[in-house]
Amino acid sequence: MTEQANGLASRVTGQVHVIGAGLLGASVGLGLRARGVDVTLEDVSPTTAALAADYGAGRARSAGEPDPALVVVATPPDVVADAVEGAIRRFPNAVVTDVASVKLAPLHELQRRGLNLDNYVGSHPMAGRERGGAIMARADLFVARPWVVCRDADTSAETLALVEAVALDLGAVLLEMTPEAHDRAVGLVSHLPQVVSSLLAARLVPAEEHAIELAGAGLRDTTRIAASDPELWVQILGANREPVIELLDAFQRDVAAFTDALRAADAPGSKRSIADLLASGTNGVARIPGKHGSAARFASITVLIDDRAGQLASLLTELGELGINMEDLRLEHSPGAQIGFAEIAVLPEVAERAVADLQSRGWRTL
């Protein structure tokens, strides 16, 4: 096991070579370097590789070095099969994994090329940010995030163990799925939300300015991921188009049913249809895992804070003094007013006491 200077041990033995030094690749490098792992970097852009190295994600690989123990391919989806093939041919003694968000299409392409895939296993960390690049990389990007490993019957225990060691070193939560199950799952929880968010945000383009000025937390929540890179998403959606098309067809049927019921809102049964469709959404939200993957739901407290330096820090300090654990935090500003809203999620059993204690200290709550 590799030892870091501060005594934090790594489960990874040997060198790790990262191909693709953008957000995911550089974040893998940063996280492994924090545990003392020797990480080398490679990117089609020398500037990108040098930038990731400057941030501490690894170093350039020297000529004549022995094969790394593991190669992590973190390239864009449309070239991942090429990069995996290149890694297998260049480093025949290394385990190779990729972190692309679609698993079945690259696997089929590699199989079509007749490669020996004994040392390859696809994986996918469910982590990211709206903006990419090494400059946005973080060592803790994968902490508490699912990391899916798509093993098959030919995957050796040694190959699987090394890929899982990287995921565990980076603080991720391991899951095993088939490539088919993975692609269906991410189509539902990642790819469909991206399309819906983007199409909703697109309706804002022709909107009148006075309408945009009324935007609140609901619009921001539902359009946040619409700021993602369109070029990247064209690649992802193209690679996973069949599951996404099935989901979009079902979503389209739901929208049509809702529209028909709303159009005939006074007809018998229409109001029930609207209510049932909305209630289905409530039931769906209840299935989304909460903090640490639990199904626990939280109560929400909204605190009014002045829009000036130090107010939020003061609120958080007092929550700590009161012994109130904050499960989540969301901030919103009131348009045209020097005031903000801090929406704090707490356990339901402490919500009433939290409101009373904060009010006793002069905080205004809604």
UniProtKB/TrEMBL annotation:
It holds the Pfam family PDH_C. It is an enzyme of class 1 (oxidoreductase). Keywords: Amino-acid biosynthesis, Aromatic amino acid biosynthesis, NAD, Oxidoreductase, Tyrosine biosynthesis. It comes from the Bacteria. Coiled coil: none annotated. Its EC number is 1.3.1.12. Residues 300-366 form the ACT domain. Pathway: Amino-acid biosynthesis; L-tyrosine biosynthesis; (4-hydroxyphenyl)pyruvate from prephenate (NAD(+) route): step 1/1. Residues 14-296 form the Prephenate/arogenate dehydrogenase domain. It catalyses: prephenate + NAD(+) = 3-(4-hydroxyphenyl)pyruvate + CO2 + NADH. Belongs to the prephenate/arogenate dehydrogenase family. This is Prephenate dehydrogenase. It comes from Leucobacter iarius.
